[in-house]
Amino acid sequence: MALLLFVQIVLFSLIARAPNLDAWGKEGHYMVCKIAEQYLTAEASELVTELLPADAGGDLASVCSWADEVRFRFRWSAPLHYANTPGVCNFNYARDCHNSHGEKDMCVVGAINNYTAQLQTYGDPSSPYDLSESLMFLAHFMGDVHQPLHVGFADDEGGNTIIVHWYRRKTNLHHVWDVNIIETAMKDFYNNDLNTMIEAINMNITDEWSDEVNQWETCRGESITCPNNLNIYSNFNKRSQVSGMHQKAFN
Question: Which residues form the signal peptide (predicted)?
Fold first, then answer.
C-alpha cells in the first residue's frame, strides 16, 4: 500500500506545478521527483529507498532521468515516453496507445499502468520484475505524461517538426517545452538556482493551490492510476498555453 501511495503522491505533485512548467528535461524530471519525495509517508519513503539502486544514494530525484539515459540501450522503451493522437485534442486509449508497429499498450499511458502493476507485486517472492527499474520508469513516465507535446499530434511528431524561435534561438517546439521553458524560467525568476525553483513550487502546493488538492486526487473509474485524465489535462494545457507563449517568444 505504501508504494501505491507513492504513485498517487507523484501524480499529485506533477499536477501541482508552477504555471507554464509543463515540460520536463533533466531538470524538470529532477524537480518532479524531489517534490514527490517530500510528500512520501515514512513507510513509503523506506520502501522507495529500498528499491533504488545503490548509486542513487537513497535519492529518487537523482535517477528520474534514467529512463531517458537508457533509451538507446532499451530501444523497445522509446514509444513509452509519449502518446500520439491523429490530429485531435483528445486521447483514446484503444486508438492511440500503440507503437509504430501497432503493438498495443506501447505508449506513456500504457507504461504508467504497466509499471504501477509491477510495483504492486512488491513482497511477492515469485515476482519476475526488476522493481528498481519499475520504480525508475514509473517516476520518469509520470513526468513525461505532463509534457503537452509528449501527448501530441502524430503528424508533427509531437512538435519535433515545428521550427520556432525561442527568443533568438532557432529550435523546434518540442525542445522548447522539454528544455527551454524551464531553463528560461529558472534564469529569469529563480536566479538560475534549481533548489530555489523547487522551493517556490512547493510553496504553491501548500499555499496557492492547496484548495485544489481534492480535485487532483479524483480518479474516476480507476482505482490506482488515472493516466487517461492526465493525457486530457496535458492536451488542454497545450491548447490553452501554446498560443499565448507564441505571442511572447516565437516571433
Answer: 1-18
pTM for the whole structure: 0.79
- Rounded CA-CA distance 216/228 in Å is 13
Q: In the structure grid, which three cell numbers stand for residue 141, read together?
A: 513516465
pLDDT at 39: 81
Choice between 207 and 116, residue whose per-residue pLDDT is larger: 116
> Alpha-carbon distance 106 to 76, whole Å?
9
Classify domain 2-249 at the CATH superfamily level: P1 Nuclease (1.10.575.10)
Helix/strand/coil for 151: strand
Residue 169 dihedral angles phi and psi, to the nearest 5°:
-100, 125
Q: How far apart are CA 184 and CA 165, in angstroms?
A: 14
Task: Please say whether the beta carbons of 23 and 177 come within 8 A.
Answer: yes
State the pLDDT confidence band at 225, using cuts at 50, 70 and 90.
Answer: low
Give the residue carrying C-alpha cell 544514494: 57
User: CB of 148 within 8 A of CB of 78?
Assistant: no
* 107/235: higher pLDDT: 107
Using only the alpha carbons of the chain, give its radius of gyration: 18
As a whole number of angstroms, the distance between CA 35 and CA 31 comes to 6
- Asked whether the beta carbons of 148 and 240 are under 8 A apart, the reply is no
**Domain positions in the chain:** 2-249
Is residue 49 exposed (0-12), middle (13-18) or buried (19+ Cβ within 10 Å)? middle
